Amino acid sequence: MSELKAAIIGLGLIGGSLALAIQRHGNVTVTGFDADPVTLREAQTLGVIHHSAGSAAEAAEGCDYIFFATPVNETVRMLKEAASGWNLKEGAILSDTGSTKTWIMEEAGRFAGGNAVFVGGHPMAGSHKSGVRAAREHLFENAYYLLTPAGRKDAPAVRKLESFLSVTKAKTAVVSAAEHDTMTAVVSHFPHVVAASLVRRLEQETEEMPFTRELAAGGFRDITRIASSDPVMWRDITLQNRDELIDQLDLWIEEMNAVREMIESGDAESIHEFYGGAKAYRDTLPAKSQGALYTTFDLNVNIPDSPGAISEIAGSLADAGISITNVRIVESRTDVFGIMVVSFQTTEDREKGRILLSERTNYDIYIT
Ligand SMILES: NC(=O)C1=CN([C@@H]2O[C@H](COP(=O)(O)OP(=O)(O)OC[C@H]3O[C@@H](n4cnc5c(N)ncnc54)[C@H](O)[C@@H]3O)[C@@H](O)[C@H]2O)C=CC1
Ligand SMILES: O=C(O)C(=O)Cc1ccc(O)cc1
Predict the structure, then answer these.
(1) Strand partners, 304
(2) Residue 88 has what DSSP assignment?
(3) Which has the closest alpha carbon to 55: 23, 87, 17?
(4) Which one of 20, 70, 107 would you pick to mutate in the ligand 1 pocket, going by the greatest count of ligand atoms within 8 A of its CB?
(5) Which atom of ligand 1 is nearest to the CA of 132?
(6) Which of 13, 80, 141, when mutated, tests ligand 1's pocket best, judged by the most ligand atoms within 8 Å of its CB?
(7) 195-253 confidence digits (pLDDT tens)
(8) Could you report the per-residue pLDDT of 62-111, keeping only the tens digit for each?
(9) Radius of gyration over alpha carbons of the chain, in Å?
(10) Which residue lies with its CA nearest to atom 4 of ligand 1?
(11) Which atom of ligand 2 is nearest the CA belonging to 225?
(12) What's the mean pLDDT in 152-164?
């Protein structure tokens, strides 16, 4: 096996996770660069990268694969620089992990006719967390990894990149940049606008009734989890995909006006149909194990609301060496059962946890 060199620029959640997954190749040396010196040092200490570089251009020099995992406006800025001034290896493949693709692919047009090829990329997995410490080798497992080549002529580079990315265990799919931005506006970008605005609505309400925030549990937390995402990243995504977002906003406002009318007129049949239709369609969506935007695999355990039950469950999993990424309690009140939601990094871990807890406890255990 010949040695390969890869560079990762931006060593946060996504760049760090990609660097770790790429190390599975065994014959790839990973050099990293991050504008934040603390992140760069941590990436090396944590073993996320083999070598650190003093600049993005230095990291990229002589590499076979170069990935930009920076906020999308930074990626656009650096592509300009890379196409004109970087010393790229003949046949190098450049890619990115950005959540938007149209502007990035427009900028990548600068590589046309040069000695390197740019193929856009977007692993559709992640979380509201950011930073190198949140990076995980198996973040992309089972998730879709969308690729947006500039055209058919880049098919050989796409095949090489797909093969290089196979160690992430993600499922690659090729789409155009425009298709990408339309689809992600619907399933990812617009939901972030909605989540943030729901939280802002709560904040406004609590000026009058501060107790409201204490009641924001369960459903509110579920639907607004992504409002805890990094504001720089989402500012850039919103700016780059603004046309699609405006379309989504217009359609949403139309829908909300119809909902308003339905509620105002007390139209029970339509209201029932509104919720029923949403539930029926929601219930047909791909399971979490099939990837898409989900990265943790949750197991629900109905428990009596007592600290003993929580430590019993966490302790049993720890004893068996099954790693968990998060634990939360929902709808817990004294004297009734609460739900302990235990998150795992992989479906395999969750299945092991489910079997173990079913054997060792009498709690009702289920996956939703
Ligand atoms: N967070 C998520 O769930 C997902 C994010 N993405 C995309 O991946 C990219 C990275 O996102 P995250 O890893 O979540 O962000 P992050 O905030 O965890 O990491 C970004 C890193 O880039 C560094 N950086 C910023 N400007 C730089 C520059 N000019 N040169 C070098 N480093 C620079 C920052 O210091 C930071 O360490 C973004 O384009 C985002 O849209 C894609 C899929 C999922
Ligand atoms: O936390 C979540 O569910 C996300 O929404 C993660 C995410 C964020 C940005 C992407 O481009 C893809 C996935």
Answers:
(1) 337
(2) P
(3) 87
(4) 70
(5) 18
(6) 13
(7) 999 999 999 999 999 999 999 988 999 999 999 999 999 999 999 999 999 999 999 99
(8) 999 999 999 999 999 999 999 988 999 999 999 999 999 999 999 999 99
(9) 23
(10) 126
(11) 1
(12) 97
pLDDT of residue 337: 63
**Is residue 188 lining ligand 2, measured as CB closer than 6 Å?**
yes
| 123 in Cβ contact with 14 (< 8 Å) | yes
What average pLDDT score do residues 333-337 get? 52
pLDDT, tens only, 291-305: 444 456 889 888 876
Taking the C-alpha atoms of residue 19 and residue 7, their distance in angstroms, rounded to an integer, is: 8
**In angstroms, how far is the first alpha carbon of the chain from the final one?**
44
Q: From the CA of 193, how far away is ligand 2's center (Å)?
A: 13
Nearest to 63 by CA among 16, 109, 107, 31: 31
Give me the numbers of helices (H) and strands (E) for the chain, helices first please.
14, 12
The order of strands in the sheet holding 297-304 is: 326-330, 337-344, 297-304, 364-366
Q: Which of 101, 124, 221 to mutate to test the pocket of ligand 2 (most atoms within 8 A of CB)?
A: 124
CB 127 near ligand 2, within 6 Å: yes
Question: Which pLDDT belongs to residue 270?
Answer: 97
Question: What integer pLDDT is reported at residue 294 of this predicted model?
Answer: 46
DSSP state for residue 265 in the 8-state scheme: T
- Nearest-ligand number for the alpha carbon of 98: 1
Structural domains present in the chain: 4-175 (3.40.50.720), 180-288 (1.10.3660.10), 296-366 (3.30.2130.10)
